[in-house]
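Exercise 7. Given the encoded structure of a 242-residue chain, write a plausible sequence.
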């Protein structure tokens, strides 16, 4: 199913991330921006879309408040993102997505639902993490339905691999969490293995996790479930002593 059009690719890692190719959090895909999305980009973009910078982000200034910070990597059309922001109003959500239709769609949802706890970075999440997010700065990380790259010869392009996961874990505060979800069983097993082998993290449960109540089932996910597809959630926590 792989419902999230904000796909992921691995392709030259940052200097201190050991990987044979460069990590990128997306794949270039074209998409038409609708009239509603274009209007949202024009009217709400300045308020909710942050410029990329090569220095740490002042999140209190960006959100206008101090609150727990959750990073989302690749939000697709923003359906789940908007829902989670609505049911968790006390958290700030920093959301990375490069595709303009998805950014416009989330901005449209922000306007329609009156959300104030989302900020968007229309930029590669790998560079955002590398330059804008210091170690121990995040309370949570969401990676929902990244591209599974289901052909074996393409598995190396998957986002959730040990070097990048180590990079993410370093940005979590002690006690912070990383929540991944996928509808591709082989990728789910890889996620579980990679996270289990990260020394900064431990599993929140035994094996796969029940779907946390804050993560909704999207229309794509519901369609897949009707077709007999599975969905797997993985939730790991950073050691308190880390």
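Solution.
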């Amino acid at each position: 199913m792989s419902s999230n059009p904000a796909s992921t690719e691995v392709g030259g890692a940052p200097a201190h991330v050991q990987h044979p190719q460069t990590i990128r959090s997306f794949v270039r895909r074209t998409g038409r921006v609708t009239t509603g999305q274009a209007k949202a980009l024009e009217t709400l973009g300045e308020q909710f879309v942050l410029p990329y910078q090569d220095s740490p982000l002042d999140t209190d200034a960006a959100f206008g408040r101090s609150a727990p910070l959750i990073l989302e990597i690749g939000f697709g059309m923003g359906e789940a993102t908007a829902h989670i922001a609505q049911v968790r109003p006390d958290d700030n959500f920093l959301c990375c997505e490069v595709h303009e239709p998805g950014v416009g769609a989330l901005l449209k949802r922000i306007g329609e639902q009156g959300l104030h706890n989302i900020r968007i970075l229309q930029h590669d999440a790998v560079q955002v993490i590398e330059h804008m997010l210091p170690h121990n700065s995040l309370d949570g990380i969401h990676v929902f339905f990244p591209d599974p790259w289901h052909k074996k010869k393409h598995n190396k392009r998957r986002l959730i691999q040990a070097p990048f996961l180590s990079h993410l874990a370093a940005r979590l505060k002690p006690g912070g969490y990383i929540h991944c979800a996928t509808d591709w069983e082989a990728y789910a097993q890889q996620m579980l293995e990679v996270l289990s082998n990260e020394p900064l993290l431990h599993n929140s449960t035994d094996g796969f996790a029940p779907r946390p109540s804050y993560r909704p089932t999207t229309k794509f996910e519901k369609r897949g479930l009707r077709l007999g597809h599975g969905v797997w959630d993985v939730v790991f926590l950073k050691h308190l002593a880390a």
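Remark. The two ends are 36 Å apart (CA to CA). Students should compare their own answers with the one above.
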